[in-house]
Amino acid sequence: SSPDAENLLRPDASAEYDQVITINLSTLEPHINGPFTPDLSTPLSAFANLVKANQWPETFGAGLIGSCTNSSYEDMTRAEHLVKQASAAGLQPKADFFITPGSEQIRATLERDQTLSTFSSAGGVVLANACGPCIGQWKRTDGV
């Protein structure tokens, strides 16, 4: 590799920063977004207590993969990988799950690469690449 390629992600020697943020990746934990709104993000360790305190539904009835604004190809194929692992282990979804591609280009690429058929064959429902499910615009079939 060329010397220039090795330095692409390094700051200039004289670079100065207003703020440096250090993230310890080993302290990160999974979060759950929702319920009722996609902008409510809760660490998994705190979720059970919030369910009780806020009297949220105690059963998980539906999951949403993607949205009109944040379902990149990479995000969708990561979710597909989980679905493939679960299917290979003989697991079936216990809740409805819906897939919303982020754009027509993402939808077409996911269809081309058979990602959408992976979701469908596992019981997922592929929706239009439009705004809707994460803000509550969908027909619930789980009694909520």
TrEMBL record:
Pfam families in the record, alphabetically? Aconitase (PF00330)
Quick check: keyword Disulfide bond in the entry? Answer: no
SUPFAM superfamilies assigned to the protein according to its UniProt record, in alphabetical order = Aconitase iron-sulfur domain
Q: Where is the Aconitase/3-isopropylmalate dehydratase large subunit alpha/beta/alpha domain?
A: 9-141
Give the UniProt keywords, A-Z. Answer: Iron, Iron-sulfur, Metal-binding
> What InterPro entries does the entry give?
Acnase/IPM_dHydase_lsu_aba_1/3, Acoase/IPM_deHydtase_lsu_aba, Aconitase/IPM_isomerase, Aconitase_4Fe-4S_BS, Aconitase_4Fe-4S_dom
Protein name from the UniProt record: Aconitate hydratase
Question: Gene symbol?
Answer: ACO2_3
